[in-house]
Queue: 2 jobs
Job 1
Amino acid sequence: MKRSILVAGVILFNLVAIFSCRPAKLADPRTSTSYDYEVVFIRTGVAGTELFKVFSYGRNERECIEASKLNAIKAILFKGIPGSGMQRPMISENGAEEKYRDYFNDFFRSGGRYLNFVALSTDGSIDSRDRIKVKNGKLLKIGIVVSVQKDNLRKQLEDDKIIKSLSSGF
Amino acid sequence: MKRLTLLILAPLLCFSSQAQTVKNKNLRNSISMLVTKYTSNPTSAYYYANELTVPSMFDDNSLNDNTLFVGDYSVTDNSSQIEAALQRNKMGQQILKTILYNARTNQYTKEVMFERGAYTATDNDYKIAMDSKKKEYVLKDMGVWLMKNIYVEVVDCKQFIDLKAETYGDYTNEYANVLNSAQQKLLTGTIYLYKLDIDEILEDQSFWNLIDFENNNNEVQKAFDNYNFKFKKINSVPFNITESKTASGALSVISELLKVDNTQPLKTDKQLLTSMLNKATEKSHAILCSSLPNFSIGQGVFDVHPIRIKVGKKESLKANNLYEITEIVEGSEKEQHVAWIRAKKVSENRFVSKGKSTPSTFYKVSGGSIKKGMTASYVPQKGYEVSVGYNEGSSLLSGTFVELTYLGGGIPKTRVGVRGIFGNAKTDVSENIFGVRDKIFFNVSNVNIETFINHTIKIGFIRLIPKVGFYYSMGRIKNYDEKGKTGLPMSDWGVTEDIKLKSWGFTTGAGVGLNLGKNLQLTFRYDYLSPLDPPTSSRTLTYFAIPIEPIFNAKGVYGVGLTVLGF
């Protein structure tokens, strides 16, 4: 009897240990519709680009940086960025994210077309003030400056009939 | 006794004017260093005002003439006079002109000031600027920020005198000769730190009208020349610097003690004052700069295999500098410690950023896993270290010891120290002296004071630490039996009572240190003592003498110690 209690205790202890050490749950930024990121306008870039600092969450630096590129595009398309030339979202149609789900799933897939319109605007270093450990050390929040080719992005969406051309009303 | 005290203090005397490690907070503010001049000067230091070296963490705003004419000298306080003199001498204009002068066009222009911004930019700043519409003008804007951080350091000297025994009212004995032979000079005074106070006119933009020289407008020039630039006092620190007129003060002391002719060439007043002024300013920077804002709050780790950080000579990084790696944790006010690292290869980054500067490499001393983007902050090495340990052997150096050392900046990696040893050496003399007779042991209980100089040589993770020093020992010898109890009376060994020891001489030795962490070192050492004076005793011989005292002299000891570094 004592042996059974001991075995049960050990199993319980191991289960607690395993579950307490599992990786933090993180929504996939490619498919998530939540806005769990922060975007700050830095300045207007060269020839139709804008520079933003994007704070994204991830389990490591690489995940955070990749998520930042994607979140910058998402912010421009669906959210708008205060203080920039993109204060209003590029796609103003309500429920567009759901309506064009298949299109955006493909657009934002790993190595997808969104990467044609965003680039890191740093030398690869992360500013020490923009790296924050969160959720009991299981997640990272990193801010990185990206440059988004907003003019080219708009043209692509117009060509793909996701948004209407600015001149279409005239 | 005074001669003895002097010998013990000799290593401390010759290192007393060592520079202190400067606290580097990655400042890149500009500084002008001035020396005061009066109608009746207490020292001739102002002659050498242009010899002052601007610390590498500042931009150099030296003027053509770095003297500041104050007026009449006051023996009590000259600070208010100095502040008035800064304005009267139009130091604000003089300093701003050094920033605004363009050597290429021989004109004052705002454009040159902007270049300072480009100079302070990081590679990241450069890349972001190049991706932006304004391009390099973004970098140049950083120069405006630097305008708010223009500092003036004023060195106000009070005394420059010979440090003689007469100074202490003692000039008749051997001690006085020894002290005078060191030919020390003393420089005293106060260093004041001021900031050019232009925050207000920068806020209301009127500053730009004052320096709008591009149009060659005489009215602008006139307004600039007549403007009353104010200075805000930040801090003040008194200084007290001693330096030997000879190449080595210690050599003079030893020559005097050993009665050997010592004809070293003496330093000129210019050499002495230049060196002492620089030491005074270097010592004071740590205190003066502690109140300045950080120019850059730490640097992010650029790469981790190997550890590389984009800092270098521009940030005054030196090989073996200690950096702390920390990270920001959400919800925590303080950054969390991760690891300690030291600089290995220092990169050259003292030129205007082109976005491709080489990072310096570091190695980990201790701590956890280092990740990209964690904060790396410089940790100045403090001056004092304390060590405790035990020496094993039958010598006057045997026993428990406590050691205090001071790491100066004069000779890199060289420390001066004082050590107290509470001796409890035991020795077996029965076989040496009495052959087959009963086993007899002697026990010395003594207190040993030692002063020394040591130097650290780094070989990989191991530190080799050779040292030389003086010791003075006093104590008592007793005999005891095999079991540790008091044995036969001392009179049986030709002595009517316990032997009272008084001995002094040189010590030499070396240690091997293993760094266990940022501040902890385990040291294994070997020390040897060679007496100059034989031990004296109060023994009274009865029938035959036994040479007991030498048993504890001219012998080495093995020791182990634990050192707390830099507290």
Job 2
Amino acid sequence: MVQAKTDSETAESKTGTKTQFGYRRHPDQDRADRNAAEHPVVVVGAGPVGLSLAIDLAQRGQRVVLLDDADRIGEGSRAICFSKRSLEYWDRLGVGQRMVDKGVVWSVGKVFHGDSLLYQFNLLPEPGHKRPAFINLQQFYAEAYLVDRVGQLPEIDLRWRNKVTALDRRNDHVALTIETPDGPYRLQAQYVVACDGARSSLRQMVGAEFSGQVFEDQFLIADVRMTAEFPTERWFWFDPPFHAGRSALLHKQPDDVWRIDLQLSRFADPAIEKQPDHVRPRIARMLGHDEFEFEWISVYKFQCRRMDRFVHGRVMFAGDSAHQVSPFGARGANSGLEDAENLAWKLDRVLRQDSPQCLLESYHTERSQAADENIRESTRSTDFMAPNSHQEARLRKAVLSLARETEFGKRMVNAGRLSVPTSYDSPLSTSDADAWRGGPRPGASMPDAPITGLQGQSMFLTDAFMPERQRFTLLEFGNGCDVDAPEGLGVISVGGEGSYADPLALAVTRYDAGPGAAYLLRPDGYVAARFRHPTRSALEAALARASGRN
Amino acid sequence: MTLSTLSNFAKPDDAFRAVVEAHRGLSDEQSADLDAALVLILANHIGDLDVLREAIVLAKRRMIDASQQQQQQQQGAHKGRPYVMSIP
């Protein structure tokens, strides 16, 4: 096992390696190639997605081998915006509170044009949710906390400096060749999940295409350390006075670090642009002073693309290895975490033979829909920020100027549409047979609501769901007739006797639930089916469908 | 709802005139800016994506017609025949 004494504090160091881990020889490496060790699941890539997936599987009782070709958590803040949905997932993985405690909580965004405020938006205007719309947290902190959690789970065998160099897909297993400082060895896995990032080598090994749109515009990221009194909001400028004709973004991170994104010309030379001497005057113009230090500078171009299929037999792809988006909208890491959450429970059920292998196909169906939505949204944002023609620029100009005077103009300004969980059109969902005026429809993720617990303590619906996360759960609203729930189903009763109470009636409202209404929740907190007055046979049918057994 | 192509104004000439006059005295660049804003304002007022798409298709047919016409003109010129506008 890795000694993950993270030391998240080492992450404070200004440059270079944030946290380093030791390579350790594993007994699997002593085995002859013909007698390679066999494991149920091998996850490749210990980034936020691979780490979260491994934790999720381990919490479900699966043994996981997690391989990473490096031995350190990378430098640079990289992904910094983690969504409400991701925090709710991390709560279920036991790391949510630590992330929120360290992170910078925000829900308000402001959009400026020139030097005047065009409009502001609040991503979570209503109270009664456990988690905020977003936190900002450097990716290296998120990874460090996840590695700490991995260290508490003996089911996970995390092997640093283990680089997969070959992958051979067989009918009943996958054979991997792994390079280490002690030389190569082989492993067999029933399933392999590739979380090895945008330049995934496993994707190349299965010979999959990764095509899409390349954007020519370049963006500069600078993380600067300074003490400043800006509010903890996302500030976006079109054509700011300090960066004429282009766009800029300012975000607060922990440790007095501020993320600044500046749009550059298509023709800018990245080698020159990222020299601190070149960046400094730009940032000084923006901030109005020169009292800051650089933490990290990077120039990037981006692409929006995805694999045709996320499931290749026994090899599955999650996160950036499967899909890549532009950064505007915080849809990269957050969608990768949603991939992990979507896949973990399905893989667990298939490994236990509770569900047929075809359940994994729904991972592709659902998450490729999400990838398409994320690519569509982030492409639109990017096109708005960097118009492709004179006429596109003209239409944008019209929108920006109409936004000063009209509500519809404000709503058309696209400075990034921030990540929300995708609703799936899914074969696992049972269509509504009853009439609903609101609430999450089948295929949508469960909304949170404040409730009180059995001892009268204040808590949230997502807390009540947490102990049930490993199985399908019936969320039932009381004072109706008792539901005769199928065996093995978790039950959360809201209202009625001996159950959670809903004193503010927000759970009832958010679920459009009358007495006796019930939602069948999947282990990932998505709605599989809902009924005004469920019957045993309807629940059984919905459960069979949601488990891939139909 | 579908796109209405019947005449909706009691006095269509007034409507046409209003648009024409809005462009009076503007440079081509300014006119294009005005049109862009006008399109977005009207699109929002309609507030129906299907209708907007139908309108776009109808408007775009001009581009196709224009390019065909241009081709015909060029072919006509090639054959040494002047292009004559046909009067229905």
